[in-house]
Design brief:
It is a single chain. The chain is an alpha/beta fold. It folds into 2 domains: 56 residues; 150 residues, Trna Endonuclease, Chain: A, domain 1. Helix content is 57%, strand content 14%. Helix 3 runs antiparallel to helix 7 and helix 4 packs parallel to helix 5. It is elongated, with a radius of gyration of 26 Å.
Length: 210
């Protein structure tokens, strides 16, 4: 009788273990399938958007206008992707959206690091305060050069500040567009898509003019 009860308990224990293993396996498979489906859908959206950009054709005026419609974080990602596409730097890193110590993008070269501060200003003007912020970050972390990429204008005191040192460069929209022209044009749609995201409502670049 005792032997029979012991076998019954072992059988019940084995079934319980098998059920746990089955549930764990089903849950794992579900997560894998879900991740695969979501990844596939995202990749398909990206590919479709890429084809749409390629087929639509675009002018540099349209690219200019599209950049001006970006929000602050989109512009940071755009600058990051644009700088990376130049192939001039050993490494290009994008910092987090907040608490970045005045450095949105970090460029690594043989000489050291370059800090890039991105400002998507339209009605505002970059002044001395922004220059002092990035210069303080450069001193704190040991960067040898700083760049401000700004879609808007600079106050005269910003230029005065930059002229007082030899390692701070102020880029305006004209400088940004020169870089757009220099990169491989086949990469430009990818750069724009990564900045805007695949869920952007923009199907063709010239929609920004409509």
């Amino acid at each position: 009788m005792r032997y029979s009860r012991l076998l019954h308990r072992r059988k019940f224990s084995t079934i319980g273990i098998l059920l746990v293993i089955m549930l764990f396996t089903i849950e794992t498979l579900y997560k894998i399938i879900k991740w695969t489906v979501l990844r596939t859908v995202k990749s398909m959206k990206w590919f479709i958007r890429y084809i749409q950009f390629i087929k639509s054709g675009y002018s540099y005026a349209e690219v200019h206008n599209l950049i001006m419609t970006m929000n602050g974080r989109e512009f940071e990602i755009f600058c990051f992707e644009l700088l990376k596409a130049t192939g001039k730097y050993n490494k290009v890193s994008l910092t987090k959206a907040s608490a970045d110590y005045g450095r949105d993008v970090i460029l690594t070269t043989d000489e050291g690091q370059i800090f890039v501060e991105c400002k998507h200003y339209i009605n505002s003007i970059v002044g001395r305060e922004i220059c002092q912020k990035i210069m303080g970050s450069m001193q704190m972390f040991g960067a040898y050069q700083g760049i401000i990429m700004n879609t808007g204008k600079y106050h005269k005191n910003a230029y005065e500040c930059a002229n007082m040192v030899d390692n701070l460069i102020l880029w305006d929209m004209g400088d940004i567009m020169k870089m757009v022209i220099k990169v491989n044009q086949k990469q430009l749609p990818k750069i724009l898509i990564k900045a805007l995201g695949v869920d952007s409502k923009i199907v063709r670049l010239n929609l920004v003019n409509e």
